[in-house]
């Protein structure tokens, strides 16, 4: 028990330095207890008394037998002018027979509480607590604002879960309190101070098995292995499929008989040899009917797809669940006789598009296996996930206009970029204003609709690059002042929606008479189709697939504390206003998580629910990957959101998961998921796509990992060895162990310990191999191994360049942004406070052209790094392996060095320069480099690091 409270002693620590300005300080050794009041819950305020404590010191204190006791310091005119550099420091002790639920510190500005921070502590021991003022927020998210006046009070109080046993006293001691300005920005390390254990998982019968009843006297049908299944020969395999599933819980298979009817898509279960099977259905698509009477159970549909939906929704109604592919993901009701209540329902899905698919690029590279695909397809079938989409949206122009067929005779069909026609998929597009091009695209769409009459839409998504045709006619639809913002690597290019949507409108006009109900589809919020058109109004038969690539991966869209997603949601709503059909084209959890746990159930639920409120919302198209240990039950939750007409209750559906999937460990596993969610929600960083590394370091500190590991250990102990429950927890624990190693690797890299980082990578590869061998769908081993090998290769190259040097900071991974308009200096992209959170990640071990940027001109690198205080006074050098061609270096907002291209071989030569005088010690540094390249390869391409001479 003692260990548990030690683990919960997670406190917000600020980086402080000697000699920081002190705004307020008290020393009770001199009796400075004026304006300190105490009360023990009886609301009789009194001056806080002073008591001698060990070591000859003094402290003020308050005691009481009630749940809450307080120490409060009242101020008159205490001014704080730099809240972002202000820290509260205190030394406390609590004497109590039982550990408190938590201790709280609050700050009052005027009559408003502008800050609260909670911590968990071990009783009867002194501890020091440091709280950055700006990490605190009031009950309504209020924060300190120096314009709102002086601080009027600081309060400390402890909360017990219940009154101390036998009326024993609990005492709160305060030895010192100071409010200081620190030279460094407070640490962004996220702690679990205010995490509260969630409620015990509870099963709700109406959610778990809505078809069953236990009410006496209610009309019902008893389903057991003595029943008979009747079905037409045409769907015999489906009847057998249902029979096999029922046999898992009924203790044996039902008798099967063949019965024909006017409708070939029905299954009838009864106790009378299935004779009453005559039925007619006019249902279409995915709909089905479920009717239960005292005589039997009827499932019928108008199509095979509808009947499959009926079979598995019927099983879901009995309590069957499939949270992940394979037997490990299957949760079955106990063997029993099912008592079904009378019902008659016509059921149809909520959203038409419910599409989850393993990423095409991963499939073509052999990362997925036939066995894995078979398991996934069965999981999809069981959860109403479609194996194709009627509204495809893929990069299509290079398919419609193959270079070999058209370029030689008609180069004008292709985009004019920098004076040259570009026809390949990497750099080229089509000329979106060319009449012949529009005619050919219209004919291609018409042919697709004729060949596949069930197809509802045709993709007009551009090739996967940010370029647009720059011919005279196309330029009429491009406003040079209306540029893509910082969310994608198309930053600085003209917005492309105006040009693209006018083209789609013209194509739609050409096919509308022959295909009045068909749609044309494009991905938006991707490449240079970011913001909506301002002049062109989209035809109502255009469908927009809104991508989530540039959104923050840790927070919900509606999280007001996430600036990235606040902008993302505004952008979604700006497209939404047209009233066109829309769906979410997402990647979450994106494969770039590199096999790390991505337990994003809260954002998954919130985001889909938010977007699903749009009239005409079609659903989701999720580019997934086979790493189920990292994301279970995210995809299951999506499936239920897409199926159920009313959004399922998140807590109920998750409680069901915890109880069914983890059994006797449900409480601890709910705690584990809750701890994970707490960290992600509190992250002060907002990573997109590939930008997770820096966030991981701040979130999964050793203290936080200890708490979570302790929770998993208790979960393991709660389960019978060898049970499915134990296997599932073992799988998630191995994935968590991989996360801990990943964070350790990042720490070693940041500290310049290349050999140690390589050793950790070796451990990670062994663990990933074991996880993949034990649970084949748990992690995408080949992809993760490939990413680890890339990291190892970069480290080995750095190791070679660093031989004989005392490396202080590795700077080989930076944020990157092209600057075609040379706006960086004017907009101070080198500034300390400038946000580059939406820039792309790039390695400094290869030119930017080798990393997908076919670009000549000026581009910027930015890198934040922490430098310990003990390096102050040492001679530090910035080493650059090679820079092609010219560069300007900035440290903490100051220009410190210019690299000119003066010699023939200067582009491939290393150089270094002293930087000691420009660095911040004991805090964060910001390095920015502007590089200009006139042609060929460009950028920093042989690494960069800081070393001690």
Word description of this protein:
By secondary structure, the chain is an alpha+beta fold. Among the domains are: 2-181, Galactose-binding domain-like (Jelly Rolls); 210-318, 2-Layer Sandwich (Chitobiase, domain 2); 390-529, no CATH class; 806-948, Jelly Rolls (Sandwich), CATH 2.60.120. The chain has 22 helices and 42 strands. The strands form ten sheets. Strands 1, 4, 5, 7, 10 and 12 form a six-stranded antiparallel beta sheet that branches. Strand 19 (321-322) and strand 20 (330-331) form a beta hairpin. The longest helix is centred in the last third of the chain and has 27 residues, at 724-750. The chain is globular, with a radius of gyration of 32 Å. The protein starts with a helix and ends with a strand. The relative contact order is 0.07. Residues 1-19 and 184-188 have low confidence and may be disordered.
